[in-house]
Amino acid sequence: MSPCVFQVATRTDEQRAYARGFEEKRRETDMACLTDHDLHRLHDDELSPADRMRVAAHVASCDVCAERLHEIASIGDLLRNAPLPGMARDAMVRIQRNVAAMQERSVRRLAGWMTAAASIVLVVSLYAATSSQAHATPSVTEWEAAAIGVDVESTSTDQATAQWIVADLVQIPADSPKQRGQQ
Amino acid sequence: MTDPPTDDQLLRSLAGADGRAMRSLIDRHGPYLYGVARTLTRSETEAEDAVQETLMALLKATYDGRSSVRTFMVSILVRQAALLRRKRRGWLRIVSDPPESAGDANEQHAVDARLDLASLLDRLSPEHREVIVMRELEGMSYDRLSQELGIARGTVESRLHRAREQLREAWKR
Question: Is 1.10.10.10 the CATH classification of the domain at B123-173?
Answer without folding.
Answer: yes
